[in-house]
């Protein structure tokens, strides 16, 4: 059991730490793009990922392979960069994480570890769930002043991370209030589909 929790924790840290690394710097004078155009918000679904979500545009898809303590993981990344960066990352564990105590520790420790791995300030962690599966909602302040808001869910052997990285509040036209609203729209639209 200890190996399973440690193995799972390392995986959560790697996956959660990936979101801030995907963010690109905004150039001065950049104007919010898709977020402010209601027509650009469209449902995106992944049959393989078994999820649907609203993106303010069409995301790019990529996969990356990770080797963690001899175990191989395949990260599936769906991301879109407009004024903020939106992304869904998921990967499957080679072992089930059915024990609720292990899942709780993995999610809690993973949230703290993810913030620490990128020198971010973890502002809040809240227990959430989706379809009876455990999760966490977290907010972080990154070293460059940008904000990360994310949801993580453990669904069977699959870990999902849905994240938005927003530039510094003063970069937004209204001090970041609209960007926060769009972040919530994105995060709250995540749904599981075709669950087995």
Write the layout of secondary structure elements.
Layout: H1 2-22, E1 42-46, E2 51-55, E3 60-68, E4 71-81, E5 85-92, H2 100-117, E6 121-130, E7 133-141, E8 147-155, E9 158-166, H3 177-188, E10 191-192
Antiparallel strand pairs: 1-2, 2-10, 3-4, 4-5, 5-9, 6-7, 7-8, 8-9
CATH superfamily: Mog1/PsbP, alpha/beta/alpha sandwich
Using the 3D structure, state the CATH architecture.
3-Layer(aba) Sandwich
- Counted up, domains total 1
CATH fold category name: Protein Transport Mog1p, Chain A
Global shape: globular
Low-confidence residue ranges: 1-17, 19-32
Oligomer: single chain
- Strand order across the largest sheet: 3-4-5-9-8-7-6
Question: How many strands, which pairing sense, and closed or not: the largest β-sheet?
Answer: 7 strands, antiparallel
Helix/strand/pairing category? alpha+beta
Q: In DSSP terms, counting alpha (H) and pi (I) runs of 4 or more, how many helices?
A: 3
Query: Ends: how far apart?
Result: 25 Å
Order of H and E elements = HEEEEEHEEEEHE
Strand content: 35-45%
CATH class descriptor: Alpha Beta
What is the overall pLDDT average?
Answer: 81
């Amino acid at each position: 059991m200890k190996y399973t929790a440690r193995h799972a924790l390392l995986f959560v840290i790697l996956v959660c730490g990936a979101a801030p690394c995907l963010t690109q710097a905004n150039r001065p004078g950049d104007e919010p793009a898709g977020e402010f155009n209601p027509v650009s918000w469209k449902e995106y679904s992944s049959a393989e990922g078994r999820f649907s979500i609203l993106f303010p545009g069409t995301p790019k898809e990529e996969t990356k392979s990770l080797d963690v303590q001899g175990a191989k993981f395949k990260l599936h990344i769906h991301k879109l960069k407009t004024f903020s960066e939106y992304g869904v990352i998921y990967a499957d564990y080679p072992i089930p994480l059915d024990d609720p105590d292990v899942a709780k520790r993995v999610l809690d420790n993973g949230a703290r570890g993810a913030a620490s791995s990128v020198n971010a300030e973890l502002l809040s962690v809240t227990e959430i769930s989706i379809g009876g599966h455990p999760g966490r909602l977290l907010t972080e302040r990154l070293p460059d002043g940008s904000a990360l808001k994310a949801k993580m869910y453990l669904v069977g052997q699959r870990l999902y991370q849905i994240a938005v990285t927003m530039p510094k509040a003063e970069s937004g036209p209204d001090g970041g209030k609209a960007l926060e609203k769009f972040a919530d729209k994105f995060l709250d639209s995540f749904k599981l589909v075709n669950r087995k």
